[in-house]
Amino acid sequence: MPWASAGEGFLSGQFGRNAVNPADFEVDSLQNVASSGTPHVVVGLVGTSPSIHITQVSVVQPGGTVRLLGTVANYDSFDRVKAQFPLLRSDIGSDGKVKLRFENTGPNDSRFPRDRSRLAYITVVAPRDNRVFSERRSTAFSNDSTLQGPATYVLENVPATLRGYDVTDAAAVQRIEGNSTGGAQRSYVFPAAAGRTRNLLLVDAARPRVPLPARLIRFRTITPAAYSFLVVSHGSLMRPVGNVANPVRAYASYRASAAGGRHDTLVVTSQQLYDQFHYGEKSPLAIRQFAQWMLTSNREKYLLLLGKGLATAEGVRTAAGSFYHRQVPEKDAPVLDLVPTSTRSPSDIFFTAEWQRNQYVARIPTGRVSAQTPQQVVNYLNKLREHEGLGPEPWRKNLLHMAGGANESEFAQFQSYVNGYKERAEKPCFGGTVVKTYTRDTPGDYQRFPITINIAPELNAGLSLITYFGHGSPLVFDLNLGDINDPSNNYNNRGKYPVFIVNGCAGGFAYGSFTSIGEDWTLAADKGAIGFLADSDFGYDGQLDAFCDRMYQLLFNDPNWYGKPIAVIQAEANRRLQAVFGNNPNGVSLLMNTTWQGDPALKLYAPDKPDFATADSRLQIAPQAPETTVQASSSRFQLRVGVSNAGSLCSGGTSLGISVTRRYPASAARPAEVLRFEVPQPRRDTTYVFELPNTGNVFGENEFVVVLDPDNKVTELSETNNQAAIKFNFLQGGVTALSPPEFAIVSSPAVRLIGQNNDPKASCASMKWSWIRCRRLTAHWCAAPPCRLQLPQNGSQLCPRGRPRQCSMVLAVAVSNQWS
């Protein structure tokens, strides 16, 4: 747990079954050990697995002989225990070292599946000669005398500048001057012990420990009610980059602007908080104490942790070797702990949740941008500005799902989870579309058998949300997307930045000395993601599904939460699920350790109003069955109207009015007609089919003007995209003779016959021509008067290219006095 519960802390590595067993540890610097008296050792052990522990403690003597000191038995699960054992003087080597061996010996049965422990500390207590080491500035020891009177110590090799102090009571330290007893001996008389152990200190006044120079610290007056957006950052991120003088201040300025929400912003550095809220000592508790102070006002706030933090036990590699990051000076550290997180189990909710009272909800919605450089701050800020400046583009309702797994059972189970999320996303209020679901069908461990997919087509076209369910880690998933910054992957989604929800182990662990997937995607310049929500520790599929399903419900379906910032919705999901999970440690860990990498006030696309839209290209005139064409003679026909709603599906009522105005040609001498319809409101893309009557004289070009919400009953995001028009030529049918024209007299012996089909969509098929009083037509084309000519069915060779309605034929005509 992030609050360092039982079994957590600064401990050794694990030892026991299926681990190092036995494990050896060494204590050094046991100098000047007296030949008399009995030394002893005190050990602190902590359980590391959910089982009963049995630990044998032995000493490895200087000659290599192993001597059992005793057994620490039956401490349970993650409990801690202390044990003391006597030592022999011969157990201490001449080099002042003692080696201890620890071996867990719980039986290998169902009661002890993983008998593992860790060592907290070893303390060796041994009598010493009364000698002071000249190379030491000070020597601390304990007085275990039970005498009622004062304790007197005569010490050898003592400089005259050595002073004694009784530091048993830190608030009442007593100074003891030494008295020379001849030569290099001095005696020190400490006050009466009164039967209790006293802590004593000898210090060489000639070589005092000089503290660092005093540094003036001025505490800042911070009024909790005066601020609504809190930024905790680091001085190294405030350096100029490009044309930005101070990226952190630029971020705060954006949040204070109209475009950024008009927040009252407060910027503090982690060092300021160490000084003002934790006595100058570096600790995540400084941020927690600051947050608790800000919570004394009930004004709504957001908390942005602007800078990378490192988990407590995270190691870093330097030129001198590998160390815990806290042991490496900032000037030598390859990765800086700029804004610390909680513990080994990283949680940013830790700073504001009342976890002491079993409440696992962030009382200030919190987000982290894990920037390590000023440029990365600028990268994210630029994307945030673009994201929050977008309008109701249709792509913003697109989602992409990914489901992994290690075997057939998990493939089916994880796919069922994401299919459930799909149903939620496509319902009101959001009415989105899952454009694609990628699945894994390769059995095996995701680290040994990684699968890489490329989502560039979907990402570049525009996605609002990418959701993954499967096994994971900070660096590898069941389905991997490749490096966002690798040009060969063709990820170019500038201005179209999605949010990730990752359901899997440690996908949200952005607290390592490496760069996690979430950091890569959120900090990439002009591409990648705008937010990344994932668990930083172990996750279990049933609880992950419950959390993700609740997030989808609140994000997409609940009118009371639709449109609120993601960090706010995360807090509400936690509030509802903590009653479901109860005291289940895995469930509590999920709630506390799910981290939001992104701005705490950022919202998923969730317009507060509908936005009905149509266009000329989305109107169509179609025949009413069983007819196959629409002509002036058709009694009815269809007008098909495509309508979309890129806005909210939870506001503006449930119905939509549509008017259709039909304007006839002037030759029809008819006034325009207006038809009105009431239809259910559309979701994302809907086609309405209206059956219109077709009576009277309609021959010629008709225009249909469609208006959505003609009475403006619904307040929309935009009223400029509600009208469209289409023109359609209603023809009579049949064929028109173009040459010779109707009733023409032809004197030429060679006649070119040209006819045109009145249906523009008709193909060149057959026509009939008639002549009155023709004398003789050669060959078989002439029949009894009137003479009818039938063109061949395959008349394509008679049709000029590009003019399929017109066909022609040249016939030789001879004049005769009789019919033929």
UniProtKB/TrEMBL annotation:
<feature type="domain" description="Gingipain">
    <location>
        <begin position="237"/>
        <end position="604"/>
    </location>
</feature>
<dbReference type="GO" id="GO:0006508">
    <property type="term" value="P:proteolysis"/>
</dbReference>
<dbReference type="InterPro" id="IPR029030">
    <property type="entry name" value="Caspase-like_dom_sf"/>
</dbReference>
<dbReference type="Pfam" id="PF01364">
    <property type="entry name" value="Peptidase_C25"/>
</dbReference>
<feature type="domain" description="CARDB">
    <location>
        <begin position="631"/>
        <end position="724"/>
    </location>
</feature>
<dbReference type="InterPro" id="IPR001769">
    <property type="entry name" value="Gingipain"/>
</dbReference>
<dbReference type="InterPro" id="IPR011635">
    <property type="entry name" value="CARDB"/>
</dbReference>
<protein>
    <recommendedName>
        <fullName>Gingipain domain-containing protein</fullName>
    </recommendedName>
</protein>
<dbReference type="InterPro" id="IPR013783">
    <property type="entry name" value="Ig-like_fold"/>
</dbReference>
<dbReference type="Pfam" id="PF07705">
    <property type="entry name" value="CARDB"/>
</dbReference>
<dbReference type="GO" id="GO:0008234">
    <property type="term" value="F:cysteine-type peptidase activity"/>
</dbReference>
